[in-house]
Design goal:
single chain; alpha/beta; 10 helices; globular; binds N-acetylmannosamine-6-phosphate; carbohydrate metabolism; NanE
């Protein structure tokens, strides 16, 4: 695919895990359809069943992941060659995978990249990273896209939010790498999405703020349900 179709645009992540109320490939396909009809340029989705259901009704390029846990490793986003094969069989344009420095199941990241490149040269690879060091390493390994997906979700970055201090992390990351940076993770307002792009992000992925109604509801409830505290 031509990556430039995503440049400066919104990618909507349509995910609901088994413990979430909207867990259903049918619902995810309708979420993706809604995103497409509202002007999104791409979709990010998890699992073969969701990706195939979305493919049937949406023609946007897709970033595919498979979240799967393996014993002895905290890596759960496309951890092994099995998930890469499964995603490739679904025809996704981009495969995203954990590119943090955590211990991995099956094989080291460098080998996994070599595997994906050799077998599926047409598929672009996105690195889900948490730190500048990991992003530089991912670039060195040959990833096509650097994602900020894991920032705030590793021991090293725990408690951090991509938007902290007017996107200080992004301001550090973008000039440090030459590959396109897709901002992903906790972008929960249109203003933040716009700001990330203005700071040089190639594209923005928004998930929960669009597709997880329990998250959206929580923010409203939090703003409404503590009037005494707010008045005090
Ligand atoms: C850390 C992790 O597992 N992130 C996952 C990656 O695919 C998803 O659960 C997120 O929803 C996605 O990254 C979009 O982020 P947000 O929903 O915050 O806009």
């Amino acid at each position: 695919m031509d990556l430039n179709t995503l440049k400066g645009h919104l990618i909507v992540s349509c995910q609901a895990l088994p413990d979430e109320p909207l867990h259903s490939s049918y619902i995810m396909s309708r979420m993706a359809k809604a995103a497409e009809s509202a002007g999104a340029a791409g979709i990010r989705a998890n699992s073969m069943i969701d990706i195939l259901a979305i493919r049937e009704v949406v023609s946007l390029p897709m970033i595919g992941i498979i979240k799967r846990e393996y014993p002895g490793s905290p890596v759960y986003i496309t951890p092994t060659s099995l998930e890469i094969d499964q995603l490739a069989s679904c025809g996704v344009e981009i495969i995203a995978m954990d590119a943090t420095n955590h211990p991995r199941p099956e094989m080291p990241l460098a080998e996994l990249i070599a595997y994906a490149r050799a077998k599926y040269p047409q598929i672009l690879l996105m690195a889900d990273t948490a730190t500048v060091t990991e992003a530089l390493q991912a670039q060195q390994l040959g990833f096509d896209i650097i994602g900020t997906t894991m920032h705030g979700y590793t021991a090293e970055t725990q408690g951090q939010n991509i938007a902290d201090n007017d996107f200080a992390y992004l301001k550090q990351l973008i000039p440090a790498v030459t590959k396109p940076v897709i901002t992903e993770g906790k972008i929960d307002t249109p203003e933040k999405a716009r700001r990330a792009l203005d700071l040089g992000a190639f594209a923005v992925v928004v998930g929960g703020a669009i597709t997880r109604p329990q998250q959206i509801t929580k923010r409203f409830v939090a703003a409404i349900d503590q009037p005494e505290e707010q008045e005090a």
